[in-house]
Amino acid sequence: MPGEVETYFEDGQWKNAIVPGEDIGGPYGSRDEAVAAGAEAARERGVDHVVRDEQGTVVDETSA
What we know:
Elements: E1 5-10, E2 13-18, E3 22-28, H1 31-45, E4 49-52, E5 58-62
Parallel strand pairs: 1-4
Antiparallel strand pairs: 1-2, 2-3, 4-5
């Protein structure tokens, strides 16, 4: 979904971005820190939050 916040792992670091590709935070020290920041960013924007694992597979999705 365009505009959703995505938490993902890239180059050994956890990051957040607004799809389709605007970085909004990171790197973070841990997955939990990145997920919390991504969830907050999604809430603030009223959009979905998608969490991907290290391989890029969607492991969690929270609807706005």
